Amino acid sequence: MPEKNVVSFTTMIDGYAKYGDMASARFLFDQAPNKDIVAWSALISGYAQNGQPNEAVKIFLQMSTRNVKPDEFIMVSLMSACSQVAYDLIQSMPVEPHAGAWGALLGACKLNGNIELGELVANRLFEIEPLNPVSSPQDVNDVLVAIDHVIDFGLASPSKPAVLGGSHGGFLTTHLIGQAQDKFIAAAARNPVCDLALMVGTTDIPDWRYVEAYGSEGQNSFTDAHVSKVKTPTLFLLGAQDLRVPVSTGLQYARALKEKGVPIKVIVFPNDTHAIERPQSDFESFLSIGVVFKNTNFSCNAGFSEVAFDINKLDKLVSLMTGGNSLSPSLQEPPTDCEIGNLELLEILCKASGKVDVLMHMSGKQ
């Protein structure tokens, strides 16, 4: 006969909960001596997993009156229970809930690992916004209508529109040049979102648009779904320290455009984050945008991370440019006198050398 202690009782409570018999699990819990945090956790988790969120919350409140401090496992179970309550509430609303409500619930499912409920919510989101939950055709159409409106008023030339956007605006920029490929003479994107699925596991806002990682429908949200139609010369401005939008997404998109012959230019700011807000970097990024928009037929050369991996190829060129200084192999200490005018010279030298296809921006210290 097993010893009647809290460990044996907790084991049986957990077993009955996994079997779905919460009545027996609750009976054993009430009989258990000296209930510890594990016993409370087993019962709360059981209720949450068996679709009885209100009971899970009641047990949690009861536990709080006993001065038992909840641990991380109980909090995860409680969040899961609350997600279920939220789902029931949304389902019972007298009006049709909008995508924002479902999106908030999906974020909660992501945080507490409730995959089953998350799939239900994701499917509901796809029903509401079947084509593109982040940048719908309506977003693109709104911008195009606004442009036509400005042209109709005589404030802009119909033959010279260019488009610029950063972050989500960069995401919309790349959608515009893919869906209205004959509209723009040039484009510039600062840290654009180009691969939503990749962001799910790498961004500092992981719950943002988590739904795009699911299924074929979410693929319509990716800008590379339209990459084959892009004709617009495009400048990419990327911060290597960006924790929100991985720099690789912009580089991959730029490479895809280059492979199909679209003129592109990439400038990577090695010490900048998502905002590209260091004064010198911000100034140079907008200066580059102005140059590109004025001279749209720029070369299809730009270069990025290859420089970091084979820096010796550029060492002599940098030395010539900076008057004897060599670039640190780690790229942590770029030449302090590497100014904007010299960047163009370095790009020309790099192109002439034929050894790199993209130039990494090297900004001096502030």
From TrEMBL:
PPR repeats lie at residues 5-35, 36-70. It comes from the Eukaryota. InterPro entries: AB_hydrolase_fold, Pept_S9_AS, Peptidase_S9_cat, PPR_rpt, TPR-like_helical_dom_sf. GO terms for biological process: proteolysis. One of its GO terms (molecular function) is serine-type endopeptidase activity. Residues 138-284 form the Peptidase S9 prolyl oligopeptidase catalytic domain. Pfam families: Peptidase_S9 (PF00326), PPR (PF01535), PPR_2 (PF13041). This is Acylamino-acid-releasing enzyme. It comes from Prunus yedoensis var. nudiflora.
